[in-house]
Amino acid sequence: MNLESKQGQLVRSLGLLSVFFLVASSVIGSGVYKKVAPMAEVMQSPLLVLLAWALGGVLTLFGTLSNAEVASMLADSGGEFVYYRKIYNRFFAFLYGWANFTAIRSASIASIAYVFAQSFNSLVPLPVLPGELSSITVFGFLTPFDNFGVKVFTIGLIIGLTYINYVGLKTGGNFSKVVLYIVIATIAMIIVLGFIIGDGSWHNITTNATGYVSHSWTDSFFIKNLFAALLGAFWAYEGWSTIGYLGGEIKNAQRNLPLGLIFGMLFVIVVYLGINFTYLYVMPIDQLLADSKSTNTIAAVTVMKHLLGNGGALFMSLLILLTTLGTTNTTILAAPRLYFAMAKEGLFFKGAAEIHPQHNTPSKAFLFQAVIVCLLVISGSFDQLTDMLIFASFIFYGATALGVFVLRVKMPDAPRPYKAWGYPIVPAIFILFCVALLIITFASKPREATMGLVLMMTGIPFYFYWNRKVNR
Q1: 394 within some domain
Q2: Which residue of 51, 249, 257, 399 has the lowest C-beta tally within 10 Å?
Q3: Do residues 356 and 8 lie in contact, with contact meaning Cβ atoms separated by under 8 Å?
Q4: How far is C-alpha 167 from the chain's CA centre?
Q5: Distance from C-alpha of 314 to C-alpha of 130, rounded to nearest angstrom
Q6: Residue 250 β-bridge partners
Q7: pTM
Q8: CA-CA distance, 361 to 52, in Å (whole number)?
Q9: CATH code at position 165
Q10: Total domain count for the chain?
């Protein structure tokens, strides 16, 4: 019996509602709980923090609107890898896939799972190594033994969720859906409680931190800080594009994929603005900053402790456990479809092209992903990983938006079930913003930006090796 006869096949089993839930569950994760503190630290103003959340949401929506037109035309398993192969060429498509494998998507999984372990650590303290071991660095900035108990727990979570998705798309998708129901209900409850029983006030929203210094909106210092805050917001909004990897498993994908993307992101923006307004309404910004200095402290837990005491802190820790569990699961579920598409083109490890004959999943692609994610967990801290992946991901977000213009020229008569709202202004604004973000991030965080580029470029030798084999 040859390999083809043993292969399973990907099944179109996801409807519009499932796409909506997968978009929302792939986005709502650790950032909504953790990133308000570093954003507050750079902006020093509650109103400016909320502005950063709103601006990040609007710009992400611009990217989603642009992506949706391309997705409506080219929907298939592999997402942007499939799009770029048709818009640009095989090499650029490969660079996207490799960047996701080594940095963007793998670092996203590592980071979200890491927050899950941090939240668990706040409930049940995990073991740490002695100081002389935990302080060991590699290349001067990697800290493999720091926070070692949290990292080991993170790795265990990744292995467990990989298995859940290894055995079937419906198993992983239904798990994420149930978690999202619980998360949205509890977030709504937190917002209501913040206004009903909290001792918050509008004064907290309008009062800046004691370290706040007023700057003109055109001042370079203000612009630099705003972009630093936006990096935090974009991390929280990160993940929406992963649904594109499941294009080959979505019913009527040309319609349901773009609609699910747009409605899912609109829903996420409303949720994020509501919960972050609640944080800043309940707790003065100075106290939030003071209480968020510890390595494993999460801002949302600090706020809920302030609101409801130790019981509130416990409740929020459990909610974060649920949320990050669902988001980690959804991200793990989607990304192997990208590596499957690459392997089918001969541009990835050959085994990733195999579909499990019983589970109908790209089983070996899940295993490759688990290995690289676990290595990233060991290598660096949460914020190093998130800054690295945001820098790398916006290279390709901008390329997708540019693809709207390219396809309008290359394929003017091709069916477009959805056309980008606000074309050409909306895609153009998003492209310009991506360029600005890349430049400013490289200037302000050169280590993380360089790390993302280096990991991306490590794929070039693999490309020439695999491409040569295909062309023999």
Answers
A1: yes
A2: 51
A3: yes
A4: 23
A5: 28
A6: 14
A7: 0.78
A8: 39
A9: 1.20.1740.10
A10: 1
